[in-house]
Amino acid sequence: MTRTKTVVLAGASGFIGTYLRVRFEQDGWTVRTIGRRATKDSAESADWNGDGAITRVLDGANLLVNLAGRSVNCRYNARNKAAILGSRVATTSALGRALAACQEPPSCWLNASTGTIYRHAEDRPQRESDGDLGSGFSVDVARAWEAALEAADTPRTRKVALRIAIVLGPGGGALRPFATLARLGLGGHMGNGDQKFSWIHVEDLYRAVRFLHLRTDISGPVNVASPDVVENRELMRLVRRAYGARFGIPTPAWLLRLGARLIRTETELVLKSRWVQPQKLLDAGFIYRQPELGRALLSIAKR
Ligand SMILES: NC(=O)c1ccc[n+]([C@@H]2O[C@H](COP(=O)([O-])OP(=O)(O)OC[C@H]3O[C@@H](n4cnc5c(N)ncnc54)[C@H](OP(=O)(O)O)[C@@H]3O)[C@@H](O)[C@H]2O)c1
To answer: Which residues, judged by CB distance below 6 Å to any ligand atom, belong to the binding site of ligand 1?
Structure first.
């Protein structure tokens, strides 16, 4: 008889965590959770207030996936910045301490990071081996997040930093504002429209998690993105097609900045040129289920 595998999801209540949880359970895994509140709906669960409880949830599990972090969809004022940074570094460090205390720690720890760690790139793709890290608040957060993972002393647990591109999938996430704009007739290109858009379908993110769990030869930063990177102009054309918008008025950068202030968010999501090349996944032979943006958007819009 094969023993059921167990995954611990930290930050499981969000957009990605909810999807991963359903998929792991469909595939017969037991899911344990760590979050701001311990819940009764998973086999075992802990909150962040106490390393002992976290250790108990981790002990004997096969895999840890950490997604915890305060949402970045807000204005970057001092209070929000501190929460965005602190929530990522503190949770990662707590997991490191708890793993070190486990009798039987999971053999693999996949910690979220972000493709935003790379610079604004319109000239060449950014691979794990020779990509240039950028500068500014979001990059500082990503660096500190990965540094906390790196600093964790877990000799029996392989560590991977998932440099995740913008995740598309049913039920919200980053696609929602684009789809809303398209429906309002405002789905034209944004800024000069030349900025690159790196993305991944949430099902391929799940599959990459499963793949990386098995690939014991892979550790360190891994770019989790589709190889089909497009310019914003093309992205918006495909969004309009998927959501049946016949035209889309372009939005200049100044108007985006004004709009972002009004809806209390930042323009980085749409104006930064992200060109994240998933070299390690490609070299390892990872096969995408949704490799093309146009088809991925159509399948999401249909649901
Ligand atoms: N979605 C994307 O396109 C994308 C791209 C690149 C990287 N990422 C990263 O991947 C992770 C998951 O993304 P997501 O889209 O699923 O985010 P999300 O929907 O905002 O969920 C993040 C989860 O983190 C936990 N959390 C929220 N505030 C927290 C705080 N102050 N302290 C500790 N935990 C907190 C919550 O889980 P509990 O309620 O269980 O505590 C929440 O559900 C995030 O760290 C994000 O930065 C996402």
So the answer is: 11-17, 35-36, 67-72, 83, 87, 91, 112, 114, 164, 166-167, 173-174
